[in-house]
Specification:
Elements lengths: L31 E7 L7 H9 L2 E7 L2 H9 L7 E2 L3 H9 L39 E13 L22 E3 L3 H11 L9 H14 L3 E4 L4 H7 L4 E5 H8 L5 E4 L5 E10 L6 H11 L2 H11 L14 H4 L8 H4 L2 E2 L7 H13 L1
Parallel strand pairs: 1-2, 1-3, 5-6, 5-7, 9-10
Antiparallel strand pairs: 3-9, 4-7, 4-8, 4-9
Helix pairs in contact: 5-12, 6-7
């Protein structure tokens, strides 16, 4: 997912805290940490303040989708320490043996994570054990961003993205699991459905929609929506809210048919060259003020419950960011689907062709 910052209307918190006993005084000033994260998906001062406190240099690279992240890591890219994969991508990397089991004794701020996020289905290991592979970072939903001044129909569910009156004003994410998953939900199936017949229904539905779609994109749809070039966008909650901060006509809806709940997670690669500093970085991000600084910048929901008191109340109190339980019940995490993914890849290739 893009998780990119479009506007900078909200200041980050990210205050510099005193060095811990395992902090900068014990780490070489020449040590580097290599982080691979979604584009503009961190507080405005988070990296700078970490570098100051720990006396190190952070090399910060970006990607725009899980597909891009997985392709790079699986191709043998080395040198990264901390990565931020989404739920199902964690499962894939675990199965491939590419993630380092975390030393939870060094991640003492894990207690700030809310109970319901501590053992998610994609990484269910007990958080007190040393075979936990990921730490929650931010979470959100996949829904519909729309221009309320242009869209005359009520936006309630996914069907609006197949309405022919909005031809050339619709964008879809350029991420296979997101598009196929939400189309499955639209058709009444689980986002993790593995019935080949249902997949053919998805293919037919997406080919029906294709002439209406202006672009499949994860990194330009916010600009298109902001500028009025698109009026309806499949998108991620925080991204749309960032557009809405500058355009009062833009709204975000969680489709009533249900959708995807996703969670991005910090993980350390098996061949990471700086594992000690990587643990320090993760523990630092979990400080309440630091974690809140990220949420205040990107406008996504935060699994770090201790951060909520430092988070903008407008974020905390918005039901489209923190949905009520009745809505949460209609949300699903994407799961790793093994060899069936090859069939999905074939359908996705045909849709984009």
């Amino acid at each position: 997912m893009t998780r990119r910052r479009f506007v900078k209307g909200v200041a980050a918190v990210g205050t510099l805290a005193a060095a811990s006993s395992l902090g900068g005084c014990l780490l070489s000033k020449k040590e580097q940490l290599n982080v691979y994260n979604w584009s503009d998906y961190i507080g405005e001062t988070t990296i700078e303040e970490f570098e100051k406190e720990f006396g190190c240099k952070v090399n910060y690279d970006n990607y725009s989708s899980n597909d891009e992240l997985l392709a790079k890591i699986q191709s043998g890219a080395t040198g990264y320490d901390v990565i931020v994969p989404s739920d199902y991508a964690v499962q894939i990397l675990r199965k491939l043996g590419l993630l380092e089991p975390l030393d939870m004794g060094r991640i003492t701020n894990f207690n700030n994570i809310g109970e319901k996020f501590r053992a998610p289905p994609f990484d269910p290991g007990p958080p007190t054990e040393q075979y936990k592979y990921s730490i929650p970072y931010q979470w959100g939903t996949t829904g519909i961003g729309y221009n309320s001044a242009k869209v005359t129909d009520e936006v309630k569910g996914w069907a609006i993205l197949w309405n022919t009156k909005y031809k050339d004003k619709i964008t879809m994410l350029k991420e296979m699991r997101e598009v196929i998953g939400t189309t499955l939900k639209f058709l009444g199936y689980s986002v993790n459905d593995t019935n080949p017949d249902h997949l053919q229904e998805v293919k037919a539905k997406l080919l029906e929609q294709k002439p209406l779609v202006r672009a499949y994109t994860t990194d330009t749809y916010m600009n298109l929506l902001a500028q009025g070039d698109s009026w309806l966008s499949q998108g991620w909650s925080g991204d749309v809210y960032q557009v809405a901060a500058d355009n009062e006509d833009v709204r975000y809806v969680i489709p009533e048919d249900g959708t995807i709940i996703w969670m991005d997670n910090m993980a350390i690669l098996k061949d990471a060259p700086h594992k000690d500093l990587a643990h320090e970085f993760i523990n630092y991000i979990l400080r309440p003020e630091v974690s809140a600084g990220i949420s205040n910048y990107v406008w996504y929901a935060n699994p770090n419950e201790a951060s909520h008191e430092f988070t903008d109340p407008e974020i905390i109190n918005d039901p489209s960011i923190y949905p009520p339980e009745a809505v949460m019940a209609r949300l699903e995490f994407l799961e790793e689907l093994g060899e069936y993914t090859q069939q999905m890849n074939q359908v996705w290739t045909e849709v984009l062709a």
